[in-house]
Amino acid sequence: xxxxxxxxxxxxxxxxxxTTYLVTTELLPAGHPLLAGLLRSLPAGLLAVxxxxxxxxxxxxxxxxxxxxxxxxAFFPLLFLAAERLxxxxxxxxxxxxxxxxxxxxxxxxxxxxxxxxxxxxxxxxAGVALVxxxxxxxxxxxxxxxALGGVTATGLGMILTKRWxxxxxxxxxxxAGWQLTAGGLLLLxxxxxxxxxxxxxxxxxxxxxxWLTTAGGIIAYTLWxxxxxxxxxxxxxxxxxxxxxxxxxxxxxxAGESFTMVQVAGILITLAALVGGQFAARPRxxxxxxxxxxxxxxxxx
Length: 302
Fold this sequence. Notes:
By secondary structure, the chain is mainly alpha-helical. The protein has 14 helices and no strands. Helix 1 crosses helix 12. The longest helix has 28 residues, at 204-231. The two termini are 24 Å apart.
């Protein structure tokens, strides 16, 4: 798989996550965000482990627990807390800072050099998302902002460690994603029942929504996402994450009948320009796309 194809396939993950807001508001029971996170992670993780028939071994038990906690177990509660305390646009705008966080963590943890073009693309992407989702009535809440920053920092660190640790020899991307989804889901399981209590009665729409989150937004998306993180330069998936709020906004306009302004159009164009520019910035000069993909792929560790 060449660099462009791998990037486009990886982009399907944040694009699918952009459907979460519409699915949640239109199909799922209100007041149970942790249940949505639990059903998005644990069933998908267990199914992936069952299909792959592989379990972690040795030091990977601890690594999987850390990665599952960062990418799933910590991220979902912080995301839901931010959603409760902030308007959706503000929460998404704060999440737009993730490329900058990933860029900084990549320099600190992986020792990757921060290129000026990559930094400019990250700043432009965050600004573009802000233009798309922020409105004149947007309000800030201190703890909501802290929760949103905490969530994107947790997933950013999880992204960096996923790239640094690679994947055990002989373990495929489905098993690898299943390990993390299961670990994060098991961490969410007691929290969900303590905070939200027993699950409510579910109608056909809710079952369909949870099925979508478990499959497209769970096992499929995270399999593609973790594979892309391991094979692409770290800034690439960091910028691709900006697709999630963009897709959420477009679906709100096309399906939910929300209004759309020229400022939002400008924000989308800026974000797309940042995404494209970031891809070129991540490629060494004169290096073919296939060579970049091969050099970015981590060595499998045991």
